[in-house]
Structures are given as structure tokens and as C-alpha cells.
Design brief:
Length: 185
């Protein structure tokens, strides 16, 4: 595997939207926390979180192409195959398969909850992630109209890997707090 800086430069080569970069950085932080929780390689899981949307701009978010094209792009970049597989599978729709591994579920749930956390922070008066409480995230999980584009079923895949939603919300939120300023929150 190459250095984090190498992969960050690669991400910045393919993604120009600062909000998408922030999402990728947030996903990296959540995946590192999940790797620690599961005693997995934090660098491998973190880099998968960082790079999972590397193809989103050149595929224009096309749900039939997004994920597999990113995985194909990354095949020669020194990542372990399970990381490339998790990146491919974070968008099941493009693969026609269901996620099966802990890594696949962790990446899908972990990258998805970041959107809910960002949206929750934006309704706070100071718009800061550091002000958000885990209970606010789980409360908003039940409000389908709130951040309607955030797929709650995907977030709930945390339970398929043995993490209750309350604990997952807290783990994810705590992972983002140290980088909140870098994320613009």
C-alpha cells in the first residue's frame, strides 16, 4: 500500500468539489474508527473510506457505474483486494450483488452516516459537529423527510456487523469531531 498522502493526492486529482472531498475525509475518519473497533487495519479501512467516491465526478454519480468504475481505477494503486471490493460494493445497485463482508457493510454504513451527521450539524445554531449529540442523529434517523436522500437502510447495516445504531452514531460522531474544522463544520 502507498502513503495516505499519495491516496489523498489521487483523490484530489479526480474530485474537485470541496464538499465531496469533505465527505471522503469524513468517511475515512469513520472507517478508521470502525477498523479500530473490529481490530482491522486502520490504514486499509481508512483509505477505502477516503477513496470510495473517487469516481463520482467522472461517472457523474451514475448509479449504474459509480463504485465499480472507482474500484477498477484503483486496481493498480497498491490497495488490498478487500478494500477495492468494499469500494466496488458500497453501491450495490451498480454490482447487482448484495454486500456480504464486514468491510463492505462498514464502508456502506460508515460513508452514509456522514451525510446524516453533516445535515444534523447544519440545523444546530452554531452548525458545528462538535455540538451534535448522538441522540440527535438517531432521532433524525426516524424522520424520513430530514436529509431525505440519506439512505437509512444502508446506515442500519451497522447492525448487520454487530453495532447497535445508538453506538454507531456515537462512534461515527466521535470520529468526526477531531477533524470537524477541516470538514468545514
Amino acid at each position: 500500500m502507498k502513503s495516505r498522502q499519495y491516496y489523498l493526492d489521487l483523490l484530489n486529482k479526480h474530485i474537485k468539489n470541496p464538499k465531496m472531498i469533505a465527505h471522503c475525509l469524513a468517511s475515512e475518519a469513520v472507517l478508521r474508527a470502525l477498523a479500530k473497533r473490529f481490530n482491522e487495519d486502520e490504514d486499509v479501512w481508512g483509505i477505502a473510506g477516503l477513496l470510495h467516491d473517487i469516481d463520482v465526478e467522472f461517472t457523474e454519480g451514475d448509479s449504474k457505474r459509480h463504485g465499480p468504475e472507482g474500484a477498477n481505477l484503483l486496481e493498480g494503486e497498491g490497495l488490498p483486494m478487500d478494500a477495492i471490493d468494499a469500494i466496488r460494493m458500497h453501491n450495490e445497485e451498480a454490482t447487482g450483488k448484495e454486500r456480504e463482508t464486514t468491510f463492505q457493510h462498514a464502508l456502506a454504513a460508515g460513508e452514509t452516516i456522514t451525510g446524516l451527521i453533516f445535515a444534523t450539524a447544519l440545523v444546530y445554531p452554531d452548525k458545528k459537529i462538535t455540538s451534535v449529540k448522538p441522540k440527535s442523529i438517531t432521532k433524525r434517523m426516524k424522520q424520513k423527510a430530514f436529509a431525505a436522500s440519506v439512505n437509512r437502510e444502508t446506515i442500519m447495516e451497522c447492525e448487520k456487523i454487530g453495532i447497535p445504531i445508538n453506538e454507531f452514531a456515537e462512534l461515527s460522531l466521535e470520529a468526526l469531531k477531531p477533524i470537524a474544522e477541516e470538514l468545514g463544520f
